[in-house]
Amino acid sequence: MRSKILALEKIASQLEPSLTTRQHWTDVVTNYGNEFIEQIEEVPAYIETEDKGAGIYKVEIQEEGRPIEFLLSTFENEVDRPGLNPASGGHLAYIPGGGLFPAALGDYLASVTNRYAGIFFGSPGAVHLEHQLVKWMCRMIGYPDSALGHLSSGGSIANLTAIATARDAKLITADKIKKSVIYITEQVHHSIQKAIRIAGLNEAQIRYIPVDDRFRMNVSILKNTIEEDKVNGLIPFLLVASAGTTDTGAVDPLNDLADLAETHDLWFHVDGAYGGFFILCDEVAHLYKGIERSDSVTIDPHKGMFLPYGTGAVLMKDIEAVQNTHYYLANYMQDTVNSNEETSPADISPELTKHFRGARMWFSLQLFGVKAFRAALDEKIWLCRYFYSEIAKRGFETGPEPELSVCIYRYVPEYGDANEFNTELVSMVRKDGRVFLSSTTIKGVVWIRLAVLSFRSHLRTIDLALKVLDEKVPQLQTHYKKSTSTS
Ligand SMILES: *Cc1c(COP(=O)(O)O)cnc(C)c1O
Questions:
Q1: Model confidence over 149-173: pLDDT tens digits?
Q2: Measured in angstroms, how far is the CA atom of residue 278 from the centroid of ligand 1?
Q3: What's the gap in Å between 377 CA and the centre of ligand 1?
Q4: Which of 1, 57, 75, 476 has its Cα between 20 and 30 A from that of 401?
């Protein structure tokens, strides 16, 4: 038996490569990363390849390992090339992604040391580190010291955590679901509707409160609707506001909404996945007045703090409420409760074992300091304002003035259908690839969006976007003119 085990050990030991091998792999990979960053301004924001990365299947998973150089070139061609480049400053669509370099170092250490950040007993230091970050965000939005939360994979899971908590805190049991009422707008992020469904609340009454001309929830209609619902014997229990809608960056009137939530005893959730960190900027901080009166907030460091994907957060004023929904003690983990002087992330989250996400955020925030982040966010606000005024000068129709770093605009052509024209325009810009833009449809009208949130988007990026549009509009107009005169 011993010799059999030793023979297996010999093969299994390949999983622990030597120092020389580790250094070689690290060198090759960091060289690749450094090269990637050095070239980031030159490579397109979007590339379409023929097989869309399907070549990855040709490198089959096999019994024997393969050399790192081969794998890296496969990764480069099949994974890094096709599609959208979220690390590029030219990514001005959806909500742009980040990729701060220190995050990679944090991830490296989180992977090598593999600290268990789910349970305080397991890695008190890792949990303290994550709590430090969560408490920093809680203070930023004006929550009391007793507030806490956790780092989630993103805004969707953060919204789900908050909505499931709201359901239980407001005692919405199965018999009450059909009579319970949730208030949102058409502009909420779709992860809210998803969370409502996953939390078993699909049969609740969902009221879509109309928005004003800047896409913010209409407070007086909300007030009337809640009062009417109460008169009709329904149970209003949840109000979801957006602090920065994804479509247009609109911030709902949080303080007025907090008044109504308080009067009617509603759980008040603010989705700040996109916009939450702009509260750091003096320029727009006033828009967030009232966020501190909410019960829960979603905020995405992988958006407003430019971290790589997989870093969201939910902040909770009442830790007991979130614990009531998410706590469970398994028998096999009974030893861990002897050391529970700190809340464990696993007790306030659907997740148990999780990536030690705090490391990437902690190194980034501590190496750079808050000032650099605030300046970058301020820069994004001003870049969006600059674009908005420039695009209006060019004869585009513009949506409302941007509140944060997203704006909408469209070109109304002399010939042809405007929706088709703008859809085609976005597709031409995408094929061009120098910058990446996306569109949205609001009340049947197609708008092009500009969303500035990459730490790599600067004045020259916005000038490039304007230049690309300056080139494409006349081309498309000529095309439409021809097609209307021939038909
Ligand atoms: C992006 C976004 C979400 C979803 O967050 P993920 O991190 O993508 O899961 C939720 N709400 C808003 C307002 C968003 O912009």
A1: 999 999 999 999 999 999 999 999 9
A2: 15
A3: 18
A4: 476
* Average pLDDT value for the chain: 96
What is the pLDDT at residue 395? 94
% of the chain residues with pLDDT over 90? 93
Mean pLDDT for 399-423 is: 96
Instruction: State percent of the chain over pLDDT 70.
Output: 99
Q: How many CB atoms lie within 10 A of CB 262?
A: 11
Return the best residue to mutate from 303, 306, 309, 351 for the ligand 1 pocket (most ligand atoms within 8 A of CB): 303
| Residue in 160, 300, 438 to alter for ligand 1 test, most ligand atoms within 8 A of Cβ | 300
Query: What pLDDT score was predicted for residue 339?
Result: 63
Q: How far is CA 366 from the centre of its chain?
A: 21
**Which residue is closest in CA terms to ligand 1's atom 6?**
155
pLDDT of residue 340: 65
CA dist 398 → 220, 221, 251, 414, 432 (Å): 27, 26, 18, 17, 23
- Nearest ligand 1 atom to the CA of 242 is 13
Q: From the CA of 273, how far away is ligand 1's center (Å)? A: 5
Confidence at residue 75, expressed as pLDDT on a 0 to 100 scale: 96
Instruction: Compute the distance from residue 408 Cα to the ligand 1 centre, in Å.
Output: 18
**Ligand 1 interacting residues, C-beta cut-off 6 A:** 95, 154-156, 159, 189, 191, 242, 246, 271, 273-274, 300, 312
pLDDT at 423 over 90: yes
User: Which of 94, 189, 194, 438, when mutated, tests ligand 1's pocket best, judged by the most ligand atoms within 8 Å of its CB?
Assistant: 189
| Nearest atom in ligand 1 to 154's CA | 7
pLDDT class of 338 with cuts at 50, 70, 90: low
In this predicted model, what pLDDT tens digit does every residue of 177-236 receive, in sequence order? 999 999 999 999 999 999 999 999 999 999 999 999 999 999 999 999 999 999 999 999
